[in-house]
Design a protein that fits this description.
The complex is a heterodimer of chains A (311) and B (251). With 311 residues, chain A is of the alpha/beta class. Chain A has 10 helices and 14 strands. Among the domains of chain A are: 6-89 and 163-232, Rossmann fold (3-Layer(aba) Sandwich), CATH 3.40.50; 236-295, Alpha-Beta Plaits (2-Layer Sandwich). In chain A, a hairpin with a 2-residue loop joins strand 4 and strand 5 (77-78). Chain A is elongated, with a radius of gyration of 24 Å. Chain B is an all-alpha fold. Chain B has helices spanning 2-17, 19-41, 53-84, 87-91, 97-123, 134-158, 162-178, 191-197, 201-214, 221-245. Chain B is globular. Classes of the chains: A alpha/beta (311), B mainly alpha (251). At the A-B interface, helix 2 and helix 3 of A face helix 1 and helix 4 of B.
């Protein structure tokens, strides 16, 4: 007999629930009726080009902006009506690099703990600093830190109150590989411990590697919302990079995506189409010098849905 | 409550870290006013019978400094946080609107009162004004600094750049404090200016505060108390309303 839990009745409130959220800034409709439900424990990715509405959505969740219409809640707490409860459950790493020049790293983290009603939080502050490689800078004034270090403190500030829902808005923008790796290790550990993660990033490979579900925003609307696996498999077929000892037969030219001298990149509708491509080459007497198969990646899905490059 | 205490601590700590600029500088400025005005006018002016002009000047200068510094504290703290972006840490936290307001206003009051006490102590070297009704002194110092602390919160929320805040300070706060009877009794003014002074809430703060020292005033301290208390309450409610609406803080 399977023991019943709240989960079986789907009574657990979602970590994040957004219903018909709208927000307009002047003539710009930043969010245009967004619906989004993120379950507890998910590692969720929010992708989209600049100006798609990602930060606006995060600002509405965090209370940094107020919605024109719609409801948003964090673990069942409305972000407007029950703003104190919802903010207590949310840890946000903002995109903009901000710091208070009057304080050291430790003072900053102690103050932030106090803002969230926590006293004597030093054990957790030390642990967060350790994971983010900040221990040696604990007593350094914020003004004296490099940009990367300030970014680490931003992450630490979002985590001082051990929030069950963590929102990271472009946390790795402009930071070195070392921080990215240590940050992701720590965030993945928090996710394994049950924290829900909402991530926005321009590094699609990060989203592909970390997120179990992804939503893509465009012009304030969600244009795709599915598991990372389903989004990737929605791109049927594959890409083939060929280096030929001769010219590509005319019958294959419509499938060419890129060409540099005798190097060709072709898209094929399925793996079965490989056989007919090779047959065409054999008939034309063109020898294959090198051949590489490429798997579809999130960037292709992104480009197809959003229609332009994000880097 | 701990959120409020932390925000208050942060604001007070900020003042303390730049104490030279936030406390010592205004004390020195007030002493310069005292030195120059008392030197030039002491032999020519006797505002209240038996009260030396230097002694008359001290409560006015104290109150002027209390008001200006209370305003400067909350307004400059808010605009700095808005411009540097670190206001986000306060906005993200589960701090109630009243806690937000109370922390900024209390820190402003503290700075204003410390500056006021500093001026009093330093001015004792020049003259020793009596303190006939200390409770009135405390009451007007507390209400006045709270009122200007709230006004500073409103100005800090409204201003988007330092320029706008400087305009608020130079074109509203400064004229109102200078024309409130810091250096004179409004009875020495022509009737038109006397009547106009009664629309200046700063006049009631200075007059009521001075009553606590000398037991004489241009107007009944109870009237002053009503005006100052009403203005303070009005500004507190306005600040609270603006904070709730997210005015220029939560876009």
């Amino acid at each position: 007999m399977i023991p019943l839990s709240l989960e079986h009745f789907n009574l657990m409130p979602p970590a994040i629930d957004v219903r018909q959220a709208r927000k307009r800034y002047g003539n710009l409709q930043a969010l245009d009726g967004v619906d989004l439900r993120i379950e507890q424990g998910e590692f969720f990715g929010l992708l989209g080009p600049n100006g798609a509405g990602k930060t606006t959505l995060i600002n509405l969740l965090a209370g940094l902006a107020l919605p024109d219409d719609g409801q948003l809640s964090v673990l069942g707490h409305d972000v407007v009506k029950q703003y104190r409860a919802s903010r207590r459950l949310l840890g946000v790493v903002p995109q903009e690099l901000a710091f208070d020049p009057f304080f050291t790293v430790r003072e900053t983290l102690r103050l932030q703990s106090g803002f969230f009603g926590l006293r004597r939080n030093d054990a957790w502050i030390d642990e967060v600093m350790h994971h983010l490689d900040l221990t040696s800078k604990a007593d350094t004034n914020m003004r004296r830190l490099s940009g990367g270090m300030k970014r680490r403190v931003l992450v630490a500030q979002a985590l001082v109150h051990k929030p069950p829902v963590i929102v990271l808005d472009e946390p790795t923008a402009g930071v070195d590989v070392e921080l990215r790796q240590s940050l992701w290790r720590f965030i993945q550990q928090l996710n394994r411990d049950g924290h829900t993660i909402l991530l926005t990033t321009h590094y699609l490979e990060e989203a592909e590697a970390l997120c179990t579900r992804i939503a893509m925003l465009k012009h304030g609307r969600i244009v795709a919302l599915d598991s990372t696996q389903n989004l990737l498999s929605s791109l049927a077929g594959c890409r083939v990079r060929l280096k030929l000892a001769g010219h590509l037969p005319a019958a294959l030219l419509p499938q060419v995506v890129e060409q540099t001298n005798d190097d060709y990149l072709l898209t094929l509708p399925s793996y079965q189409a490989l056989e007919s491509m090779l047959a065409e080459l054999r008939v034309a007497g063109v020898a294959v010098q090198e051949m590489t198969l490429q798997q579809p990646d999130l960037e292709e899905v992104f480009l197809r849905l959003v229609g332009r490059v994000v880097h | 409550m701990l959120s409020f205490c932390s925000l208050l601590y942060k604001e007070v700590f900020r003042v303390w870290k730049v104490g030279f600029q936030t406390v010592l500088a205004p004390v020195l400025t007030a002493l310069l006013y005292l030195l120059i005005f008392s030197h030039v006018l002491a032999q020519h002016v006797e505002v209240y019978p038996g009260v030396h002009y230097t002694a008359f000047l001290i409560p006015g200068l104290m109150m002027m400094a209390i008001l200006q510094n209370a305003f400067a504290n909350s307004s400059s703290s808010l605009i700095q946080s808005k411009i540097t972006g670190n206001i986000v840490f306060v906005l993200l936290a589960p701090i109630a609107y009243w806690e937000f307001l109370a922390a900024y206003v209390l820190a402003s009051m503290l700075r204003g009162l410390v500056v006021g006490i500093g001026i009093y102590l330093a001015a004792l070297w020049f003259a020793q004004p009596p303190m006939l009704f200390p409770l009135w002194i405390i009451l007007f110092a507390v209400l006045g600094s709270a009122m200007l602390g709230s006004l500073g919160v409103v100005a800090g929320m409204w201003a988007e750049k330092f320029d706008q805040l400087a305009g608020f300070q130079n074109f509203i706060i400064m004229p109102l404090t200078f024309l409130s009877g810091v250096f004179y009794s409004i009875h020495s003014l022509p009737p038109f200016w006397q009547a106009l002074s009664r629309f200046n809430p700063f006049f009631y703060m200075i007059d009521g505060f001075r009553y606590g020292f000398f037991g004489v005033s241009d107007i009944s301290p109870w009237v002053s108390l009503t005006v100052v208390g009403g203005c303070m309450l009005g500004l507190m409610l306005l600040s609270l309303g603006l904070l709730k609406s997210g005015y220029k803080l939560r876009y």
